[in-house]
Design a protein that fits this description.
Neuraminidase; mainly beta; 889 residues; seven-stranded antiparallel sheet; eight-stranded antiparallel sheet; globular; 58 strands; 5% helix; paralog of FGE (formylglycine-generating enzyme); Jelly Rolls; single chain; disordered N terminus
């Protein structure tokens, strides 16, 4: 039974305080219980006692404001995933599983011991308007829920609980939000399938843009409408993991960060509308997908489950500050620690953590000297499964802990985050919370015990553009806290009262995923991604704390997808900048220059006017492989380093700079950055040729007829069959053409382990100046890209940006072989990719070049063939061998 107590002038319902100044503390428990309108009021002040009317007994009950309720009789059911593999019609996207989500397990028996009445429909605008007339201003926001009979939205859990309190006082009966178990019991209505409609859901339940008018979809067997789709519905419970074993009238966890929502919403994929699916968000969150349904009946007097066990990163964190925390490497000698892997994910991709994709890092030094790193963990960055993982490097230890869960609003896209230590005693965690990936709310919580526990998270900026936090937070000279947000124009969010209130800057930084620092004279200085100026990374400078900005070109190459730069004012005074480059010149210890590519660091002593010190972030040792994004391997050498990462940086109390990429942690001091790297050849040596297995003909052939059939309507204007039966490509005056190969032909997938060979026979008749010709692009699924383009007199190799597209800029290709005549007749071209990811390139059986793979952002493997705009050619065939590389006879 729930423990009832009186404490001061309040009623204590379990661990929940229901404030009431008029409670008579001498009342027996049975009478005291009648003061409880619903336990949801635990977060609402001003509890008022009401005279309790009798519970109705009829099957359908209508109250004084026209709300209809259906009586739900006691009974039992199995809560959670139905233990039946979901159909392909239900599992339609990434981050969706045939065995449901991890938090739908373990399935367990639940007994509902008392009857209750559940709203036949979701609460409507008209009904909610009786309680909160001012809510009318929200009608139609984001284009939904305009009419009186449409389900109300933009209602927080706190708002919904307050409505129940108001209705209880008005009616003299116990109205409340239903528990999660009551909701699922009523939704299933005796069914044991994914939906109360069966294994699948009729389209009307989830179709995008349909009216939110209640009762538009068929009722379930117990007469309750709109439990799949419509709007998500707030439940009473704090969200937490299920526990095995039979439960009677469960009420969720005793506390938590998120309140449960159920049922999914209009336009949401059917997977998230299942009877077992669990969603949730912060109690003060509100947006267009969430409304609520009301229950009439006494709150179960069950004890809530305890808080879940702490995660690994919260355990064994010492609270005492080490006496030697500021003692570190000699600042007058170069210090560089070899890269340490900090992303150590558990195997598998079922959640809550996902081994497949790790991205978007943030790091902070705790007051106790520990480093805490967080990052996105997901299958798809736009998916609802996306959460935030964490790892701790305890002070004095050499290795990071395995990953553990840091933040996970259930079935929300938790996009964007940043950690920041205020230099006193508080660590700030800024978190994006999205109902959809581009509709983000900005959330803040704080910790005063080295990230072991956190304050209750709160929404500091409601859903909208420019609210996704970016890893760039600092304290300005005027004492204000400044953070950066995008997913919309890149702006500053500023607080002048230690994070209690926030406002958005009027001006915008050029580019997204910006990084910002304050200059000595008080101006703000930012680098941005994309929106480049004269082909270089843009600089934004503001003299008025973000009200206006002036833009100019920097001396640095731009960054693109999968990359984010960082900028930090070091304790020693200079600015530190880390970013990515392609064939950038650096001066080595011999006073000579050599080319480097990948992650580099740079230092400025004049507030960003010049950057005299630049060097690759590498240990300068012989070439070796290290893990990068998604665990893919990349070569680290004096010429090359990691080429993709959302960087994060902090400087610890001992002066060491900690730079984290997609999987690796680099630690070095300012002296190392200012020390020229060892002498190296100007360019990395080309790979050496190998004798490959000879294969005259490749086993899988797209002849001209098959190529033409594959071209389809998409390429109908650029591809045709010539009288000789050859495919003619003609993109003169037209756009590019492109054919994807191997995706639906039943042959083996492209592999980054076995290698492969691709051959085509073509006569290149014409190409446009400054444009590509006939294209072949291969991506092996393991970050290795191989791109050729053939023009009339040469063969070129793509060495450009990491973006994934067939529309590659020709100025990012380099020459493999020139002085050729590719227009005089048909010629055969073969690219053979070795298991070490070196490509051997052949023309008419002769080896004409070797190239290392180029990195690109992770995607599924593919092979694409086509031509740029302004090309004309004849194609006889394209042939593949995905079992390994081979050379022509």
């Amino acid at each position: 039974m729930m423990d009832w107590q009186t404490k001061g002038g309040s009623v204590m319902y379990g661990n929940h305080e229901l404030r009431e100044q008029t409670v008579n503390r001498s009342l027996p428990h049975q009478l005291l219980a009648t003061f409880v309108v619903c336990s949801a009021l635990s977060v609402c002040s001003g509890f008022v006692s009401v005279a309790r009317a009798k519970m109705p007994t009829e099957r359908v009950f209508t109250n004084s404001i026209g709300m209809k309720f259906v009586r739900i009789e006691p009974g039992g059911f199995v809560m959670g995933f139905e233990n039946a593999t979901l159909t392909a019609e239900v599992v339609t996207g990434r981050g969706q599983f045939v065995q449901g989500d991890f938090d739908e397990h373990p399935r367990h028996r639940v007994k509902i011991s008392r009857p209750y009445y559940i709203g036949m429909y979701e609460v409507t605008n008209a009904q909610y308007g009786r309680f909160a007339p001012e809510h009318r201003r929200t009608r139609g926001k984001e284009g939904a829920s305009k009419g009186d009979d449409e389900a109300v939205n933009f209602v927080s859990w706190n708002d919904a609980a307050a409505f129940c309190k108001w209705l209880s006082k008005k009616e003299g009966m116990a109205y409340r939000l239903c528990t999660e178990a009551e909701w699922e019991y009523a939704c299933r209505a005796g069914t044991t399938t994914a939906y109360h409609t069966g294994l699948t859901l009729p389209q009307i339940f989830s179709e995008k843009g349909r009216s939110l008018a209640v009762g538009r979809t068929p009722a379930n067997a117990w007469g309750v409408y709109d439990m799949h789709g419509g709007v998500e519905e707030w439940c009473y419970d704090w969200y937490g993991p299920y526990e095995a074993g039979e439960q009677i009238d469960p009420v969720g966890r005793i506390s938590g960060d998120f309140k449960v929502t159920r049922g999914g919403s209009n336009g949401t994929e059917a997977y998230y509308l299942r009877s077992a699916n669990r969603l949730g968000t912060l109690p003060d969150d509100k947006h267009g997908l969430i409304g609520f349904r009301v229950v009439l009946g006494e709150m179960p007097d069950t004890r809530p489950l305890p808080e879940p066990e702490k995660e690994l990163h919260q355990i064994n964190a010492r609270q005492k500050i080490p006496t030697d925390i500021a003692a570190g490497p000699d600042p007058d000698r170069p210090y560089f620690h070899p890269p340490r892997k900090f992303v150590k994910m558990p195997a598998g991709d079922r959640g809550p953590l996902f081994a497949k994709h790790s991205h978007f890092m943030s790091v902070v030094e705790c007051p106790n000297g520990d480093l805490l790193a967080i990052w996105h963990s997901c299958i798809s960055e736009s998916g609802r499964e996306l959460c935030v993982a964490a790892s701790r490097l305890h002070y004095g230890l050499k290795s990071w802990e395995p990953a553990s869960l840091f933040w996970d609003a259930p079935d929300r896209n938790d996009h964007g985050h940043a950690l920041w230590f205020d230099g006193k005693d508080t660590i700030y965690h800024f978190q994006g919370l999205a109902d959809q990936v581009r509709n983000v709310a900005l959330v803040l919580r704080t910790s005063k015990d080295n990230c072991v526990t956190w304050s209750r998270p709160r929404v500091i900026a409601e859903h909208g553009p420019s609210r996704m936090p970016i890893e760039s937070v600092f304290r300005a000279q005027d004492g204000s806290i400044v953070t950066i947000c995008d997913k919309g124009p890149t702006v500053l969010w500023i607080s002048g009262d230690e994070g209690q209130s926030w406002y958005k800057s009027e001006g915008t930084i050029r580019g997204k995923h910006a990084t910002v620092a304050q200059l000595s004279d008080g101006r703000l200085f930012a680098f941005g991604r994309e929106r480049n100026i004269d082909g270089m990374m843009p600089i934004s400078i503001s003299a008025d704390m973000g009200k206006t900005w002036k833009y100019s070109a920097s001396e640095f190459q731009p960054v693109c997808w999968g990359q984010r730069s960082v900028l930090l004012r070091l304790r020693e005074g200079p600015l530190f900048f880390a970013s990515f480059c392609k064939r950038m010149k650096v001066t080595n210890a011999a006073g000579k220059q050599h080319l480097v590519s990948g992650l580099f660091g740079s230092v400025s002593f004049d507030d960003g006017k010049t950057w005299p010190y630049k060097r690759l972030i590498t240990d300068d040792g012989p070439p070796r492989s290290i893990e990068t994004m998604n665990g893919h391997l990349i070569t680290m050498s004096p010429h090359n380093s990691v080429s993709v990462a959302y960087l994060t940086v902090c400087q610890s109390a001992d002066g060491v700079i900690h730079l984290l990429g997609s999987r690796q942690h680099y630690a070095f001091n300012l002296k190392w950055l200012m020390t020229p790297p060892p002498e190296a050849p100007f360019e990395p040596p080309l790979p050496k040729a190998r004798r490959l297995a000879v294969r005259k003909e490749l086993p899988f052939v797209y002849d001209s007829k098959k190529l033409y059939e594959r071209a389809g309507e998409r390429n109908s204007q650029t591809m045709s069959l010539s009288p000789e039966g050859l495919v003619k490509i003609d993109t003169v005056g037209k756009g590019d053409c492109s054919l994807g190969l191997v995706d639906d032909d039943g042959i083996d997938a492209v592999s980054d382990i076995k290698g492969l060979s691709v051959e085509f026979k073509s006569q290149v008749l014409k190409t446009a100046g400054g444009r590509r010709g006939i294209d072949l692009e291969i991506y092996d699924g393991g970050c290795g890209r191989y791109g050729l383009t053939i023009k009339e007199n040469a063969i070129y190799w793509y060495e450009g940006l990491i973006l994934g597209t067939t529309s590659l800029a020709f100025d990012q290709f380099t020459t493999v072989a020139d002085g050729l005549d590719n227009a005089d007749a048909m010629h055969t071209y073969r690219i053979s990719v070795r298991p070490d990811r070196v490509a051997q390139i052949y023309r008419d059986g002769e080896l004409v070049g070797l190239r290392n793979y180029e990195y690109r952002t992770p995607r599924d493997a593919y092979i694409k063939f086509g031509a740029a705009a302004g090309a004309e050619a004849l194609i006889e065939y394209v042939a593949l061998d995905l079992t390994g590389p081979s050379q022509p006879e």
